Structures are given as C-alpha cells and as structure tokens.
Structure to design on (633 residues):
DNA sequence: GGCGACACAAATGT
DNA sequence: CACATTTGTGTCGC
C-alpha cells in the first residue's frame, strides 16, 4: 500500500513478477517479464499501454489556403500491445505482435472547418506550393545505433495463413484517439453489430455526410469514401530478419516513429540526404502521390528480445524414458515436473496464474497434458511436485476463482480480468493518492543528440538508475549511469473496487491533455519536461461516481535530431495509399520504386515482391486486410 | 545460433 | 455451452 502506483495486492511469487498499473480509462497495464512468467496468448494481460511518445518534431508546414495561416497539428499515438516496462527498459519480443494506434487533430479548427478547408504545403525541395490531397499517417521503425530503417511487417488475424504486408500509410481525418479499452475491444471483432458499434469511432463515411462542402475542399480529395479516423497498426512485428543484438551481444535499441504527413500529387520526394525528413517521405508510384512529412513523434528506446530460449522461461529436460519424457520447467522459483505424452515429445505449456489467494489452494495443480491425454487427478498428485505452492494454469485459475468481485475491498488485476468488461472498467479506482501516480522521467542526458535515450521509471521516488547499455559509444550513445537494476518495483498497492457494479466509464471521447513545458522541437539535443495528463470521462449517468482516473507522467524529452541517416542500403517503403474498403494492396517498394502490386506467392498466401528484399521483408498490404478481420469474413 | 514452418493450446468471440 | 478464432510460443529441421 502506502500509495504505490502498482495495484497488485498479491504477495505470491507469480504476482511479484507482474507490475500492474491502472490506465486512465479504467483498464490496467500489467508488465511482466516473459523470461519469467508465461501468460496465455489471449489473456487481456497481453494488452498494455507501452511507452509514451516524445513531443512532436516538425518538418513541413501546411498552410490553410483560406486564411493563409499555418495549420497546427497534433498527433496522438499510443502503443496498446507488445511492450513491457521491465527494470527500466521497454521490452518487446521479436516473435510477438505489437499494436500502435494514432489519430491526429487540428487544435485550432473544428472538424467541419477542417473538412471544408483546402491546404497547401511547400516541401523543402520545392519552389512552389502544392495542394494537399489528404492527410495521412505512417509508422516506421529505426535502429538507434546506426539510424537504419527497420522493416515492419503486419499480419492479418490469420497470421501465417494470411498475407504479410508493410504497415500501410493510412489517410486520416482529425478525430479523438479511442481509449485503450476500445482498441482492446475492437481488436478481434467479426460480429457485424459489434462492428457497427465501433464504426463511428473509427471511420468517417464521406458518402453519408449530408452536409455539403465546397468544391475543392479537402474532404473530396481523400481517396475513398470511408475515411479512417484512427490508424490502427495491429499485429505488427519487426521484420524477422532483424538482428536484435550487436556483435558485442548487447541489445540494439529501436524506436517506432509515427509520422503525420500530407499527400500531394506527383513525385516530390526529397532525396537530399541532409533533409531532416530524409527517408520519411514516400512516393507511391501507382497513385502518383507523395507523402510529405509534417510532424513526427517517436518512442523512447525499445529493446527487442529475439527467439533465443534464454528469452523465455527456462526448460530443462531432465529425463526421457521410452514412454514419456519428464520435463522440469523452472519458472522463477516454481518448478513443475510433468510427464510428457505429447507427440513429438512436446512439452505442455504452463501458464502462470497471477495469484492464488485462497488459503485452501495449496495443492499444486498441473494443467492437463496434451489434448486428449489428461492425467487423472490422482495421478497428478502422485507426481513429484517440487513446489508446494499452487501453480495454476490460466484456465484453472479462472475456474477456481470464485471470488465475489463486487463489494470486494481490493482486487487484483486478475480479479479485474474476471469481471465482465464493462464492470472491469468501473472496477478500478481507487484510492491511489496523488503521489502514487506513475511518473516517468529520463535519465540525465548526455550528448547524444539523436534519440530519446532512456526512460527511468521512478514511481516510488526511488532512485532507479538506468540500466542502459554502457558500451559502444561508437554510435555516439552516451549511456546513463548504470547501476543496480535489481530493485524491483513494489506491487503492493491495492485498488479498491467500487461497489457500483454499473459504473461505467465512457468509451468515447476520452480526452487527453498534454502540457508541455519547455518544448523542444528544435534540432540538437534539447531537453524538455512535460506532463501528460489524461482524463477518461465517465458516461453521464454515472458521473457522480467520479471515477475519472488521472495519470501523470513526467517525461524528460530529447528531441530527435533530424540529421540524416545516410544509409542507402535501407529499403525505403513506399506503400501507396490504401483504400479502406477495397482490396487494393499497398506495396512496399524497396529502393526501386518500380513494381507495385504483387500477387500472393504460391506459398500460403504470403505476398512477395521483387527488389532487394527477402520475401519475408517485402511488405504488401491490403486495405481490406488492414481492417479488422471481420471485414473479410 | 537463427529462421521458416508447423504445431499446440488457452482465452476470447460468436 | 460448443465451436471457431486468435496469438504466445514450443519445436523441428535446414
């Protein structure tokens, strides 16, 4: 307790591996180390808000033709899956999906005014002002060490059975960013009525707008009638070919960049490698359209863990007999010994249950073995169990979790998960004191002016030092003070459950207010602090419960330098604009902007492309496929 | 040691 | 409640 931002209440070993924080919308973000604990693939614990993005870096200005004034833009990106905050680092897994979502806004203009307007941009390398056809965002990744661009791949829900493609450029109109919860709920919807429920939050249907707009205003020059309000980059992975470690075995550092741009007719690529947005513009040959960057936000350094078994809970094969293989799994202090009946000698997975607070649950529970070969309970008990503590599978934990969730004075993340979603939202809230809000800040800066170097998490005002790699300054990285990273964040605070089961937090119109002091959009290593403040409004009928949650993040920002990367060997993606409702493909063209649409390769529907990339790196996208998979069913 | 491919399985969606 | 889907990850074999 004592006012910690963590809301876990459990004391058992598993729970200590999970740090849970509440999000502003009532959901929680539970960070855990996949080297230590395995959580079921579809667990809601796999959804979590990732690192905040840096303040925007501005590139080209856009002028409102009517007023002649520069238009202000803001982008609101958020990571909703795939990155855990572990011992002062943001950790992702090469094999796992991550999600980045973003909307953009024009703070000084209403949507109507925006749609009614027309806009011009004058790219750095151009002498004339060019008419903006539409605004759009794109997602790119870079390796900090060498500034190289990193290919990203997007899958459909079908994963290997479906196509792979580059995260497309998404044409967008200004809109609020749906909260984390809505992104969760919309992630795998196929049901039509459910789709409709989300439609308004994610799409603007130009053809359904009664209002009439002047000829030539921007709404008419968007490429499709169905225009996205939110870019949802779901099921994204780093290209499988990336190396996540340097030759020295130290981890590389990556950043994700969300770029707002405008698309104009013709090829206006800026090939000046000194351009501050070199490699951020994109020419789409098919549409003969160029994406001109307006502004960008990026994540702090990210660590990506590869496929090495060392990045997963250790397995130790201890015995193999003719009929069965005994495998001991050590996960933290738990040791599970189980026989193996699976074909091919495969080991059954064990999923951690976050907690077990029933006193009578001391009996260890081993999950069923392979599908049709469950052990009898008696057999199970006769197995040599090393750990007297209960070790529940996810499913069994749930089954046994018959806890009155309402009126409970405190609950855990697991409790929250067990609640119906709507209740879960309302379940939160709590008694976190002001000083319990998570606060993030960066380590003392150094002279590395290119990227946001590190983040330190100091929720308890403890001095956590940054465990950054201390090494090769060859890339010019100055690392923060290294120090003990042993300290673990406490997970002892609790959250109280509101007695009102019907309390609901509105899913819509979550507002975010970012206050930046000493913003730094300039070039070299400038630093700023900003407070990120968010509110999740409660739906009207329940506002009196004042369940609005507030999170404050103190962030020390370093503006990314816009110096060039000068790596010619990095493929530049040039997807063409997507049509949200048809099946045109966005192709990722490597240095040769020649080829366009590619058919699926013969194998398993994977799109292949020519050029200098390996098949797995060639990214194509279908807009249709970019939509929730339900559009395809 | 890494990667593509395939497999298993657990929670979610219908 | 049953079946289908989605996605973390175990594993084989190159």
């Amino acid at each position: 307790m004592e006012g910690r931002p963590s809301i876990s209440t459990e004391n058992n070993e598993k729970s200590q591996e999970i740090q849970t924080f509440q999000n502003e919308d009532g959901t929680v973000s539970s960070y855990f180390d996949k080297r230590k604990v395995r959580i079921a693939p579809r667990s809601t614990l796999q959804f979590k808000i990732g690192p905040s993005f840096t303040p925007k870096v501005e590139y080209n200005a856009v002028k409102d033709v009517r007023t002649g004034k520069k238009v202000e833009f803001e982008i609101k990106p958020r990571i909703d899956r795939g990155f855990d905050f572990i011992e002062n680092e943001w950790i992702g897994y090469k094999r796992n999906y991550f999600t980045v979502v973003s909307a953009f806004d024009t703070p000084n203009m209403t949507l109507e005014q925006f749609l009614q307007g027309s806009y011009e941009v004058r790219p750095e390398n151009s002498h004339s002002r060019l008419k903006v056809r539409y605004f759009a965002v794109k997602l790119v990744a870079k390796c900090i060490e060498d500034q190289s661009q990193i290919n990203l791949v997007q899958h459909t829900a079908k994963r290997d059975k479906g196509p792979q493609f580059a995260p497309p450029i998404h044409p967008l109109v200004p809109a609020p960013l749906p909260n984390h919860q809505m992104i969760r709920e919309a992630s795998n919807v196929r049901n039509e009525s459910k789709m409709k429920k989300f439609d308004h939050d994610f799409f603007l249907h130009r053809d359904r707008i009664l209002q009439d707009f002047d000829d030539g205003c921007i709404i008419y020059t968007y490429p499709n009638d169905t225009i996205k309000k939110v870019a949802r980059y779901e099921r994204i992975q780093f290209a499988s070919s990336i190396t996540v470690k340097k030759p020295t075995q130290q981890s590389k550092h990556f950043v994700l960049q969300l770029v707002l741009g405008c698309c104009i007719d013709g090829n206006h690529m800026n090939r000046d490698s000194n351009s501050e947005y070199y490699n951020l513009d994109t020419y789409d040959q098919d549409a003969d359209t160029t994406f001109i960057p307006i502004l960008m936000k990026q994540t702090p350094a990210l660590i990506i863990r590869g496929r090495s078994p060392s990045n997963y809970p250790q397995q130790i094969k201890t015995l193999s007999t003719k009929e069965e293989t005994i495998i001991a799994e050590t996960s933290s202090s738990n040791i599970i010994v189980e026989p193996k009946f699976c074909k091919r000698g495969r080991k059954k997975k064990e999923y951690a249950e976050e907690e077990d607070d029933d006193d009578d649950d001391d009996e260890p529970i081993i999950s069923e073995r392979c599908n049709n070969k469950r052990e009898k309970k008696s057999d199970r008990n006769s197995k040599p169990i090393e750990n007297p503590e209960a070790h529940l599978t996810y499913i069994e934990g749930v089954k046994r979790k018959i806890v009155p969730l309402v009126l409970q004075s405190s609950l855990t993340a697991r409790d929250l998960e067990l609640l119906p979603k709507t209740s879960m939202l309302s379940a939160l809230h709590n008694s976190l004191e002001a000083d319990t809000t998570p606060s993030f800040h960066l380590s003392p800066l150094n002279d590395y002016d290119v990227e946001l170097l590190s983040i330190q998490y100091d929720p308890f005002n403890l001095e956590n030092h940054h465990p950054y790699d201390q090494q090769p300054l060859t890339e010019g990285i100055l690392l923060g003070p290294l120090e003990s990273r042993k300290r673990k964040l406490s997970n002892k605070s609790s959250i109280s459950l509101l007695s009102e089961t019907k309390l609901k937090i509105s899913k819509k119109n979550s507002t975010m207010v970012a206050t930046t002091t000493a913003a730094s959009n300039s070039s070299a290593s400038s630093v700023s602090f900003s407070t990120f403040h968010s509110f999740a409004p409660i739906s009207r009928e329940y506002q009196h419960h004042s369940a609005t949650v507030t999170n404050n993040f103190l962030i020390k920002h370093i503006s990314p330098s816009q110096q060039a990367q000068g790596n010619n060997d990095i493929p530049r993606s040039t997807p063409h604009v997507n049509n949200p409702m048809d099946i045109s493909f966005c192709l990722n063209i490597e240095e040769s902007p020649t080829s366009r649409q590619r058919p699926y390769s013969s194998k398993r529907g994977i799109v292949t492309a020519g050029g200098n990339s390996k098949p797995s790196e060639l990214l194509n996208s279908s807009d249709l496929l970019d939509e929730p998979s339900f559009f395809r069913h």
Q: What stands out?
A: Residues 40-44, 160, 188-191, 194, 240-241, 243, 306-308, 342-344, 346, 348-349, 351, 367-368, 370-371, 393-395, 398, 603-604, 616 of chain A lie near DNA strand B (CB under 10 Å from a C1'). Chain A is about 10% helix and 25% strand. Confidence is low (pLDDT under 50) at residues 317-345, 356-633 of chain A.
